[in-house]
Specification:
about 75% helix
Amino acid sequence: MTTVDSPPADSPVTAGRPAPALRRLYFVRFGFAVVWAALLFADKSHLGALGITLLVVYPLFDVASAITDVRSAGGTGPIRGLQVNIAISTIATVALGVAGASGVPAVLRVWGAWAIVSGAVQLIVGLSRRKGAMGGQWPMMLSGGISVLAGASFIMGASASDPKLTGVAGYAVLGGIFFLVSALRLGRAGKAS
């Protein structure tokens, strides 16, 4: 669950309707989250080569998605939240690669910190846009708030006697569901305009 920033309704990208590129991106992010979580579950949350690769790929995909979102905005609209997200997720990518060599508790702490920071940014961006041209930001605000809570849960779970990564996979699926809801809402808004 990460920051999502959209072009304003009057930008050349949206041309009077919600950005179709943003809607497609949300659908892709939903699909990616579900497939990623299934692979992490199938790997039984081990920190072997596949597990560490999956942990690094997730925030890396987030970076690529944010870059795609910035480009689809065509240099218009508020992109500061996306730029912050790119920086946060880039740091998380490197930190998860390093933490993967230290074990599940280290991974949960890094993932938790990433979830808290990116969730807080997402919540702030959603709150700032709730009355603007992109209105209907409740899925992203809710997602950001849940991300903050989940991040704290991951950090606390790192101290458990047998910490597991299964919560991380569930977190990814829930984030994907929020992207799906947002994509569907954008489609509905497009038909209404």
